């Protein structure tokens, strides 16, 4: 499967807006992988599939979580919005034969992050947040940091996300904290 085929494969599963977001995440991930010397091909594939499971029903996602030994069951105690990355990482192999563990992991952790993220995981995590269609408070500074320092940028994304979730009073998944704590150590 080449990149063009990957884009065609995800398109029917996404809304038009989500598909356009996906294309921008892929372009942003390509730029970041040039800048920070990661595999451009893997970054683009992971980006194209990162939201692949976004519009699967809650029931279907629940079934994939329950029947996939690699997925933690504690996800079910958290908001279904957190399920599409982990479920997507299973579906890319089941439905498209993508066996690459690095790509799968970048899809899996794109929403929460985790401790000890690889450059590829960091790139997808950051690209999803800074793609040109996004408009979050503080995004200009984060985009500027993305010109220079991938880990520091990911730290800013993680910190912003936690601040946003705290402000809304939302529950925060453990990996979200593990990402923040680990990135804090890595920038100091
Ligand atoms: O799928 P996208 O909209 O492109 O973006 P995403 O997958 O990064 O994030 C989806 C949502 O998940 C976003 O509104 C932030 C939220 N989120 C991230 N970490 C956590 C979280 N929500 C909860 N409740 N807990 C988290 O730890
Ligand atoms: Fe997502
Ligand atoms: Fe994200
Ligand atoms: Fe996304």
Please report which band the strand proportion falls in: under 5%, 5-15%, 15-25%, 25-35%, 35-45% or over 45%: under 5%
Spell out which ligands are present: 2'-deoxyguanosine-5'-diphosphate, fe (iii) ion
For the report, how would you describe the main beta sheet? Answer: none
Give the % helix. 55-70%
**Terminal CA distance:** 40 Å
GO molecular function, one term: bis(5'-nucleosyl)-tetraphosphatase (symmetrical) activity
Organism: Tigheibacillus halophilus
Catalytic activity: P(1),P(4)-bis(5'-adenosyl) tetraphosphate + H2O = 2 ADP + 2 H(+)
Domain HD: 18-133
Overview of the structural elements:
This protein is mostly helical and 188 residues long. The protein has a single domain, classed as Hypothetical protein af1432, CATH 1.10.3210.10. It is built from ten helices and no strands. The chain has helices spanning 3-10, 16-36, 40-49, 58-67, 84-96, 101-108, 119-130, 139-145, 150-168, 174-187. The longest helix is centred in the N-terminal third of the chain and has 21 residues, at 16-36. It starts with a helix and ends with a helix. One fe (iii) ion binds at residues 110-111, 125, 128-129.
Please give a handful of descriptors for the protein shown.
single chain, 188 residues, mainly alpha, Hypothetical protein af1432, globular, binds 2'-deoxyguanosine-5'-diphosphate, nucleotide-binding, YqeK, bis(5'-nucleosyl)-tetraphosphatase (symmetrical) activity
């Amino acid at each position: 499967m080449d990149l063009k085929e990957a884009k065609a494969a995800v398109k029917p599963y996404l809304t038009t807006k989500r598909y356009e977001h996906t294309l921008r995440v892929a372009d942003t991930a390509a730029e970041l992988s040039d800048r920070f010397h990661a595999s451009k091909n893997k970054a683009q594939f992971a980006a194209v599939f990162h939201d692949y499971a976004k519009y699967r029903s809650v029931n279907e996602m629940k079934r994939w979580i329950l029947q996939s030994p690699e997925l933690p069951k504690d996800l079910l105690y958290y908001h279904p919005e957190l399920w599409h990355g982990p479920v997507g990482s299973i579906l890319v192999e089941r439905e498209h034969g993508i066996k690459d563990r690095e790509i799968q992991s970048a899809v899996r952790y794109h929403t929460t992050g985790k401790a000890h993220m690889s450059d590829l995981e960091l790139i997808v995590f950051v690209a999803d947040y800074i793609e040109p269609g996004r408009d979050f408070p503080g995004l200009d500074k984060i985009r500027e940091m993305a010109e220079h320092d991938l880990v520091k940028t990911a730290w800013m994304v993680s910190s912003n996300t936690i601040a946003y979730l705290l402000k809304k009073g939302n529950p925060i998944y453990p990996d979200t904290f593990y990402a923040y704590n680990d990135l804090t150590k890595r920038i100091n």
